[in-house]
Amino acid sequence: MKLIRHSLAAVCLSLAAGSVLPALAADSVMVGGAAMYPSKTIVENAMNSQDHTTLVAAVKAAGLVDTLNSKGPFTVFAPTNAAFAALPAGTVDSLLKPENKATLSKILTYHVVAGNHTGHELMAAAKKGGGWTKLTSVEGEPLIIKEHGEMLTVTDAKGVSSAVTIADVKQSNGVIHVVDKVLMPK
Q1: Cα–Cα nearest to 135, from 155, 150, 149, 151
Q2: Which domain of life is it from (predicted)?
Q3: What per-residue confidence (pLDDT) applies to 1?
């Protein structure tokens, strides 16, 4: 109840100042033009992001909506639409076909790690590990997390590195880190 009163007071102050953005910033992060609320699940928030429409379509086609709406917690490295568009021509269309559901599921679960791994935690583990640390994806293969100053990258099984462009988007069932490339298992 205290949080609701605090949020309501912030909205009222923001409206009086002519903007609601400061009130949103206290409770959410903006991704793809939409507020990402920590009270919503990974899928609920991703569905509102204009930058993740391809990811949402892929999650639906792979039958992973219920899994990513479950309790978790999960850490998701969420590729943007631009990341999917950078794949070879026809790849996304092919993956979304029902006959490729197993391959799509393998790729998507490679972007998911069990647990709630914040950017701060990943940065600290990488620094402690000499600049890198390893996480095991739900798919079963490792992801290499590297720190470069204040930036994190995720390197996939094929040696391609993806930058974390937005870290620590808190969800009710985990955390999302937005990445600029699609990660590929072996």
Answers
A1: 155
A2: Bacteria
A3: 32
CATH numeric code, 49-179: 2.30.180.10
pLDDT (0 to 100) of residue 28: 72
17, two tokens: 């100042």
Domains of the chain, by residue range, sit at 49-179
Prior bond to 79 cis, omega within 30?
no
Instruction: Give how far Cα 33 sits from Cα of 48, 80, 170, Å.
Output: 8, 13, 16
Sequence-distant (≥ 6) Cβ neighbours of residue 82 within 8 angstroms:
51, 180
Instruction: List strands edge to edge, sheet with 132-136.
Output: 112-114, 74-79, 174-179, 161-171, 151-155, 142-148, 132-136
Listed residue (175, 129, 134) closest to 154, CA to CA: 134
- Model pTM? 0.83
Query: pLDDT value at position 8?
Result: 32
Tokens of 123: 């940065």
Closest CA to 177 of 148, 157, 154: 154
Select from 76, 162, 151, 163 the least CA-distant residue to 116. Answer: 76
